[in-house]
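Please review this one:
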Amino acid sequence: MTVNQILSTKGRGVYSIVSTITVFEALRVMGEKNIGAILVIEDGTLKGILSERDYARKIVLKDKSSKKTPVSEIMESEVVTVKASDNLDFCMELMSKRRIRHLPVIENDEVIGLVSIGDVVKAIIEVQKETIKHLDSYISQ
């Protein structure tokens, strides 16, 4: 299964913000959308990603103010991305090695979607269920 297959089920919509807003404003958007990370896109270009983990480690633990700190100060600017044609094993390997939970999907230098660790795990479970179903059918014959 590929990233493209996940996106065809999940959808290609992504939420994004600009790096100049405050962390508090970004968290408000994330709360409204019920998401754990949000992309930072400016002029159509992916500039970074902000996650709840960034907030916890770079604001809360450092006793900074989320209402005064711009997203640009705490966002991850070295974003790990994937292509729509990449397979799920590759995504899992990336997420595990890099200890990340979200992968923006890039095509022709444009963000076309976002997959989370939950999306990937769900898709892998579905593939395994199908494999088990086919094996069970084969054994039963």
Remarks:
- The radius of gyration is 18 Å.
- Helices lie at 3-10, 23-33, 52-60, 71-74, 88-98, 117-140.
- The mean pLDDT is 95.
- The chain is about 50% helix and 20% strand.
